[in-house]
Amino acid sequence: MLIIGAGLSGIGAAWRLQQAFPGKTYAVLEARAAIGGTWDLFRYPGVRSDSDMFTLSYPFRPWTDTASLASGEKIRQYIQDTADDGGITPHIRFGARVVTADWSSRDERWTVGLADGTAMTSGFLYACAGYYSYDEGYQPGFGGEETFTGRLVHPQFWPADLAYAGKNVVVIGSGATAVTLVPAMAPDAAHVTMLQRSPTYLTALPARDVIAAGLRRVLPARAANTLSRAKNILLSQGFYQLARRRPERVRKLLRTMAVRGLGDEAYVDEHFKPAYDPWDQRLCVIPGGDLYEEIRAGRASVVTDRIESFVPEGIRLRSGAVLEADIVVTATGLRLIPIGGVAVSVDGEPVRIGERAAYRGLMLSGVPNLAYCIGYTNASWTLRADLSHRYVCRLLRHMDRHGYAVATPKSPAGTGRPLLDLSSGYVQRALDLFPQQGDRAPWIVRQNYLRDVITTPRADVTRDMTFEGIAS
């Protein structure tokens, strides 16, 4: 088997594969020079998880750090330690960027083409590269950028030499990256302004889970981690369901939290009152209310307006005001790409992924022996990723047991629903690139871990699946 990506998903997949098939050979192909994926790529100030680590961590390896919302460095080290302790690291081929994957029906194998011109073959391909483009972020054209005399930075490519102490900084955006950057930079910068076109829902959560800490004092690490994980899953899923069914109640709750954090109702209504319902877009987490603290201290502020253009001294707004800046950070979003951007073909014919249907949210209709890993939009990535890893192992075990070489999901009768269910701009811009959902199981991709954790391990691997060939 070939696994694409040595990030959180790829290392988890390798661990599950080794556990299920101790004798099966595999390799992990990683485009970068290090383990960690997204957590190795993003190096901007304050980079951290916006999901609690008891659900973002692997269920087979307890999270033992005291931080519940952990820094990128801690997460990267956790993934590295998991790979090292699991004996996975020797199986990783670094600097191996996969650019093409072609299935041969005659040979019943994938031929994977790498950027360096070499090729590898495998009977089964598992893409665990997520859906972010590592090569480019989303950068809207505001106009006049070339006239700006300061420094323009995108968080995805943070310069190691960027000195912002004592500087005026403008962060464009109001998503997870922006609300992380502002409180991280504010203590050292002269001032940080978060410039947003429209508000985003925020929720303040403790950076440290006191219940988990208490459980660790009286229980073994694995038992404490399991209970903390279950507690956080129930709370997050319960809150999500409440938001979808009683949005007005959750809207009031989030407003109350913001008013308590900022102490200014008018400021909240101007800058923290979104036009959409909670969870139409992903909810942003601010650990300990750090963003609110920096605003109250006067080290940070929020401006809600549209950009007219860049000018030499900063940014001119539609209102006519000019935000002066030494540094502008464009936290304007990410570019999404399916299957890690790999060009997939079957017998030489390109596969248009956006025209395919998503089988159980991890395979493509009509494409043999290919799985891909994506997480939930309303919960920790690892929750779905680990279910996917275990399902792939069950499918491989079924194939081995019956001597099958090839498994191909059939094409469903009806499709048309998007795979990702958020109204966020970065999602909407890429919907046509991703597979579609069908109108019945196993072609429906639900955002409900509590349901999936019961049904996925028991799902019939033969349903809507064609098996053929003789395994060698």
Secondary-structure blueprint of this entry?
Blueprint lengths: L1 E3 L3 H13 L6 E4 L7 H4 L11 H4 L15 H14 L6 E3 L3 E7 L4 E6 L4 E4 L2 E3 L4 E6 L13 E3 L14 E5 L3 H10 L5 E6 L5 E4 L4 H9 L2 H25 L1 H16 L2 H7 L12 E4 L2 H7 L3 E5 L2 E5 L2 E4 L4 E3 L2 E4 L3 E3 L6 E4 L2 E2 L7 E2 L3 E2 L5 E3 L8 H22 L3 E4 L5 E4 L6 H4 L7 E3 L10 H7 L9 E4 L4
Parallel strand pairs: 1-2, 1-7, 2-3, 4-20, 7-24, 9-18, 10-11, 10-18, 11-14, 12-13
Antiparallel strand pairs: 4-5, 5-6, 8-19, 15-16, 16-17, 20-21, 22-23, 25-28, 26-27
Given helix and strand content, the structural type is: alpha/beta
The gross shape turns out to be globular
> Regions with pLDDT < 50 over 5+ consecutive residues?
none
* Terminal-residue CA separation: 14 Å
Number of domains: 2
Q: Which second-level CATH architecture of the largest domain applies?
A: 3-Layer(bba) Sandwich
Report the count of strand segments.
28
Taking all Cα atoms into account, the compactness measure Rg is 23 Å
Distinct helical segment count: 13
CATH class of the largest domain: Alpha Beta
Oligomer: single chain
Q: What characterizes the major β-sheet?
A: 5 strands, parallel
Mean pLDDT: 93
Q: Which fold does the CATH topology of the largest domain refer to?
A: FAD/NAD(P)-binding domain
Strand-residue fraction? 15-25%
Structural features:
472 residues; alpha/beta; FAD/NAD(P)-binding domain; 5-stranded parallel beta sheet; 5-stranded mixed beta sheet; 13 helices; 30% helix; 23% strand; globular; FAD-binding_MO; Flavin_mOase-like; FAD/NAD-bd_sf
